[in-house]
Amino acid sequence: MPYRVFISYAHNDDAPPPDGGGKGFVSTLMRYVAFYVKQNGPPMPSFFRDIYEIRKSTPFNPVLQGELQQADALLIVLSRNWLASEYCKHELSLFRSNRPQERPQDVQQRIIIVGKQFIAAKDFPQLLQNLDRAGDKFQDGHAFYEELDERPGMYEDYFAEGKRDQPAEFNRAAKDLANDLSARAAVCVGDPSPVQMPVPPASNGRKIFLAKPAGDMSEAYDRMVAELENQGYEVAPDPSARVSDVSEALIQSALQGAEISIHLLGEKVGPAPEDEDHILPLQLHLAAARVATQPEGGRFRRIIWAPRSMPGNGDAKLQRDPIEVVKRYGALDGDTIEGCEIGDFVEFVTKHLGDNPPPPPPPPPVPDPVPGDRNVYILANERDAKYAIAVGSVLQSKCNPTFAVYEDDQEGKEYNDGQLATCDEVLIPWADAGTVWVRSNASRLKNYRELGRDKPFERRTVVAGPPSGNDKAILTSVPPRDSIDVALDLTDYPTVPPNAFDSLFPEKPAQ
User: Fold this and answer.
1) Which CATH code for domain 4-188?
2) Which of 123, 186, 213, 222 is in Cβ range 3.0-4.6 Å of 217 for a Cys bridge?
C-alpha cells in the first residue's frame, strides 16, 4: 500500500483571492508537492485532503475518522487559522489516540509541520509540546516564510496570492517538503507492521466520570479519554456523545457507579441543555450532590484541573489561580484541585487510580429461610411488560410477586409508591427498556427513607434478559453497589429458565 498522508488544514487557508484569480495556499502547495513527488518517482505517497469541507457535518465525519486511522503521517498546515479551529485540533487528537501502543516520540515522527506563517513554539498544541524534538524544529523543517534581516521579529510569507507561478523561495520549500515525503514513502515500503486498528484494551471493570468539556478544553478532554480507555477504564458519559446532547438525566446515569469525577475547567462554560444550567457547572453541581449523598465511608470525589495558564488575546496568556477558578462554581472540602500541565495532570489521575483500587464487592445477601412468604415488587418499564410477566410466572412458586401498574396518573403513582414503601424486596426485569431508565430507577432504591420505608429492602435485584448488549453486560458484571444487591444475566436464554431464581429462593427447610 502507498504511504498515506492526511493533510490537516483550516479551510480559510485555502481561500482563493477575491478576484477569482489563482488558488489558495493549500491547493497551490499540493500542486507543487505533487509535481515534485512524481519527479522523484516511486514509491509515491498518497494524500487525503478534505476538499469538500465534509468536516462541517456533525458529529465528526466517519470518513475523516477512517482516513486518520489509516494514515501513516499527519501533515499539519500550521497557521493562526489552524490553531483557532476545533476540528483541526480534534484531527490531531484523534491521530494520537488512534495509536495507543506507540510512544509519544514515535507518534511525533509521523507528524509533519508545514509553517504557513510564523507561530511561536509556546503556542503549539499540547500534543506537540514536551516531546523529544523541540517545537522550533518542527516549524523550521518546512517553513513558507522567513524572518526579515532588517526587521527582527517580522516575517515575510513566500506565498504570492493570486499568482499561478510562485517565487523561488516557495518553489524551493515545496520541493524540500516533497523530498521529505518521498523519503518517508521509501522507508515505509515493505514495512511489515503498518498502523492497524487498535485492539480495545481489556476492561478493568472500573468506571470514571469524565465531565464533557467546554470548547476550550476539548483537546485536553481527548487526551484524558485516550489515556483512561487505554488503561481499561470505562469513561462516562460516552465520549462519542455530542456535548450539546448531554442532559441532566444522562449525567446522573453516568455518575452512577463511577469511582471519581474529573472536571476540566477553562474559561468557557459550554452549551446549556434545554431548561438547565450550562454543561460545565451542571456537571460540577451534580457531582457535588453525589459526594453529599454517598453512603458513609464512600470514596467518590471530584478531581478538578484548572490550568494556571490559558490562551488570552494575541500572544498574551491569561494567568489564573486554580482555587479561585473552582470557587466560581462552589468548591468542596474533599475536592482535589490541580493547576499543572495536562501531561502532569494525566499522570496524577492515573497514579491516584492505581493507588486507590475499588473496595471488594459486598458479600452476597443471605437468602430468606422462608422465601415463599416474601413480597417481591416487580418494577418494570412498560416496554418490558411481557418479560416481567415471564419473570413473575417463574417467581410465583417461590414468593408473592406484585407487578407495577402503568397508568400515568396520580392513582397509579400512589399505587407504585405504596409498593416500594411496603414490599420486602424489589426486582427490575430488563429486556427492551432503555439503559437510562433502568439505572435511574435503580438509583431511586439507594435511600430507602426517601421512599417512605422504615427499613432497608431485603434485596434489590436486576434481571437482564435478551437482547444482550454492552450496557447490560456492564451492569450485570459491575452493578452499582449502593443501589443493586444482585444482578442476574439471563440474556443468553430466550425464555426465563424455571430454575433461574433457585439461588435466591432456596427450598424451605424440611421440618
Assistant:
1) 3.40.50
2) 213
pLDDT tens, residue by residue, 410-445: 999 999 999 999 999 999 999 999 999 999 999 999
* Residue 424, SS3 per DSSP: coil
The C-alpha atoms of residue 156 and residue 149 are separated, in whole angstroms, by 11
| pLDDT on residue 314 | 56
CB 74 within 8 A of CB 44: no
Q: Is 69 helix (H, G, I), strand (E, B) or coil?
A: helix
C-alpha cell read off for 289: 450532590
**Strand spans (E) along 189-276:** 207-210, 234-236, 261-264
Does 275 have pLDDT greater than 80? no
d(CA 393, CA 479): 25
Distance CA 258, CA 286 (A): 13
**459-464 vs 425-430, strand pairing mode:** parallel
Over its C-alpha atoms, the chain yields an Rg (Å, rounded) of 29
DSSP sequence for 379-419: ---GGGHHHHHHHHHHHTTTSEEEEPP---SHHHHHHHHHH
The answer, yes or no, to whether residue 272 has pLDDT greater than 80, is yes
Residue 121's pLDDT is: 79
Distance between CA atoms of residues 483 and 298, nearest Å: 13
**Whether domain 371-489 has CATH 3.40.50.2300:** yes
Residue 54, pLDDT score: 44
At 78, give phi and psi (nearest 5°). -80, 130
Domain ranges of the chain: 4-188, 207-355, 371-489
Cβ atoms within 10 Å of 55's Cβ, excluding its own: 18
The answer, yes or no, to whether the previous bond of 480 is cis (omega within 30 of 0) is: no
Tell me how long the chain is: 511
This prediction has a pTM of: 0.42
CA distance 87 to 93: 10
Q: Which residue has cell 506565498?
A: 159
What's the fold here for domain 207-355? Rossmann fold (3.40.50)
